[in-house]
Design brief:
The protein is α+β, with helices and mostly antiparallel strands. Helices cover 27% and strands 34% of the residues. Helix 2 packs across helix 3. It is globular.
């Protein structure tokens, strides 16, 4: 199980965002060379050590390529990479990968949730919960199919879904007027169910990454349980782990 704390933004993440904005705003293309480390650190107002940490992270995500003794170059990847080290909205991840995020609502309904959702959200076996079925696209290509199940105390009918921009954590925190502090997720490889394959434009039974995630409020109440199916042809997860020396 992966546990993610929701932060307003770390220093490293801010430097990465500044670098991505610099690359985008200056229209860098694949194989274009970035300024020297000294020049870039001065432009961003950070130390070279902090800049190098950001470079390492972006290189792991396939955004840049560093060539020893030569310089740092922009990479072009057809893959959307999500780091498991910290939480970022999928809208931001897709945008940072060079795609335009699009969010499509398939259906909003009430139904009896699957057992895993029922257990997490503490609902009875016969209780119907609100369900949001949606699709996330990158440049009109479907990449994530999602079923969101909401806790019994959450009334999604009173939420202004016209303001939903794909950033579910931010949207829920605002709609419920309560801070959210943690996401717990389980990730596994599975075969794509036939009823979902048509939404992702994939063959039934194709290998796929599935994620079960629960968002918790600061009082540890579960707010939403989600089942997500990722198109593994275009989405991959990365994680960096430090090696203990003692």
């Amino acid at each position: 199980m992966v546990r993610m704390a929701i932060h307003s933004g770390t220093r490293l993440q801010q430097v990465k965002t500044d670098l991505l904005n610099y690359i985008s705003q200056n229209h860098y293309q694949r194989n274009d060379q970035l300024p020297s480390e000294a020049a870039m650190a001065k432009m961003l107002g950070v130390s070279r050590n902090t800049l190098r940490e950001a470079y390492i992270s972006l290189e792991n995500e396939g955004v840049i390529i560093r060539r020893h003794g030569i310089g740092t170059f922009v990479a072009q990847s057809s893959v959307i990479r999500d780091s498991l080290n910290e939480f970022s909205p999928f809208a931001q991840i897709i945008q940072d990968s060079g795609y335009a995020p699009v969010f499509k609502t398939i259906a909003i309904r009430r139904e009896i949730p699957p057992p895993a959702a029922r257990d997490v959200l503490q609902s009875s076996a016969s209780e119907s919960l609100s369900c949001l079925e949606r699709l996330v696209l990158a440049d009109q290509r479907p990449v994530i199919y999602v079923n969101d199940y909401f806790a019994p105390f959450v009334s999604i009918g009173q939420m202004n879904w016209e303001q939903f921009n794909g950033k579910m954590v931010q949207f829920l925190a605002t709609a419920l007027n309560t801070p959210l502090h943690q996401i717990q997720s389980s990730i596994r490889a599975s075969a794509l169910p036939a009823e979902i394959a048509c939404h992702l434009d994939m063959e039934p039974g194709a290998p796929i990454l599935s994620v079960q995630s629960t968002i918790y409020a600061v009082d540890n109440r579960p707010v939403m349980y989600s089942e997500l199916y990722f198109n593994s042809d275009i989405v991959e997860f990365n994680i960096v782990r430090n090696i203990r020396t003692n």
